[in-house]
Specification:
This protein has 47 residues and is mainly alpha-helical. The chain has two helices and no strands. The longest helix has 30 residues, at 17-46. The termini are far apart.
Length: 47
């Protein structure tokens, strides 16, 4: 059975909800950064 990254984080942080929340905020902001970077790379490849 494949575990999601959220369940892996919860296990690593030993159920510390405050730490989980901080990690989730970090993950969501990193996803935004990756999205912006991938869009710029796609635009460069089209030209």
């Amino acid at each position: 059975m494949k575990k999601s990254w959220k369940s892996k984080v919860a296990k690593v942080t030993a159920g510390n909800r405050e730490l989980d929340r901080k990690f989730m905020k970090l993950k969501s902001s990193w996803d935004e950064v990756e999205g912006i970077l991938s869009k710029s790379v796609k635009k460069k490849r089209k030209k």
